[in-house]
Design brief:
L-arginine/glycine Amidinotransferase, Chain A, four-stranded mixed beta sheet, 21 strands
């Protein structure tokens, strides 16, 4: 029996953790609307579960004003003052697992800003702060004496031994997280700390993804045997071939596979952005889904509504948010009940 198990995202939560946006360099020349997008996200989540919001020490008044004006249920929001570099808690925050007795443990993976950026030293301490705040045990996963780098957006689990990830993110020499890790090192690490019996390796991520292949823009479990995966319908689009290959791999694993559309290419200031409906987040009574002012928005929302009949499915406008190269799943981290 595995010592630890990472619960699936759809299992009951105690809360969602977020970090208030403050690094204007993540949204150059477009920062002004981002706080209001966060206000909408908190409003949607706080109707259904507690939201733990990490804020800079000088941002409490401003954040509280935004949440009040956005009519978020502030009685279901807790503000915690702590310094972070950025706001992508899916990757910098702890990953919660349960031990054999069902008690929660906060896994404190090393975070190095996707092996790409220099500003990560504050974010790397966030799991310790969360574990101390919650008074839960903290564990720093290591293998062969090496503290393991892992971002939550690079994996997706079904809570019953299966994991999705990509070769581009974990096995490429570009933005290499854990040299000289290979496939077997990762699989052993995931078995030891996350309770994973089988890793399902997809190939490449979507165009514009600065993480170099995070799976939460590609394919997601929605129950133990069903995966949704984004598919590009335009054969001339750069995403078409890699997404078709990922689709065929998923079919080969005898899973129930549901296709999600991709929005039309979203470009701002000459940069193609990683807009994807797969970057949704599952909370206790709601699924929040990124939308992009695109005709495929309603199609994606309808597909996900059919897959989650017991939850609200709410679209959140993310044309501005995705300029930071991430959307809803990238900024949230579930704390299991």
């Amino acid at each position: 029996m595995n010592q630890y198990r990472m619960p699936a995202e759809w299992e009951p939560h105690t809360s969602t953790w977020l970090a208030w946006p403050h690094n204007e360099n993540d949204w150059p020349d477009k920062f002004a609307p981002i706080e209001w997008v966060y206000g909408e996200i908190v409003r949607a989540l706080a109707r259904h579960e507690l939201v733990n919001l990490v804020i800079p020490t000088d941002a409490e008044e401003g954040a509280a004003d935004v949440l009040k004006r956005a009519t978020a249920n502030t009685a279901n929001v807790r503000l915690w003052k702590y310094a972070t570099d950025r706001s992508w808690v899916r990757d910098s925050g702890p990953i919660f697992v349960k031990d054999a007795a069902g008690a929660r443990v906060a896994l404190d993976w090393h975070f190095n800003a996707w092996a790409k950026y220099d500003n990560w030293t504050c974010d790397d301490t966030l799991p310790e702060f969360v574990a101390r705040t919650l008074n839960v045990p903290r564990l720093q996963p290591a293998r062969n004496g090496h503290r393991v780098v892992l971002e939550g957006g690079s994996i997706d689990v079904n809570g019953a031994g299966l994991m999705l990830t990509t070769e581009e993110c974990l096995l490429s020499k570009t933005q290499e997280r854990n040299p000289p890790f290979g496939r077997a090192d990762y699989e052993a690490t995931f078995k030891e700390f996350l309770g994973i019996d089988q890793v399902l390796w997809l190939n490449r991520g979507i165009v514009g993804d600065d993480t170099h292949g995070h799976v939460d823009d590609l394919a997601r479990f929605v129950n133990e045997r069903t995966v949704v995966t984004v598919v590009e319908s335009n054969p001339t689009d750069a995403n078409y071939a890699p997404l078709q290959e990922n689709l065929e791999r998923l079919r080969g694993w005898k899973l129930d596979v549901v296709q999600l559309p991709m929005p039309r290419p979203l470009v701002f200031d000459g940069t193609r952005l990683p807009a994807s409906y797969a970057n949704f987040y599952i909370a206790n009574g709601v699924v929040i889904v990124p939308t992009f002012n695109d005709p495929a928005d309603r199609v994606a929302l309808g597909i996900l509504a059919d897959l989650f009949p017991d939850r609200e499915v709410v679209g959140v406008h993310c044309v501005d948010l995705v300029w930071g190269l991430g959307t809803l799943h990238c900024m949230t981290q579930q704390e299991p009940a």
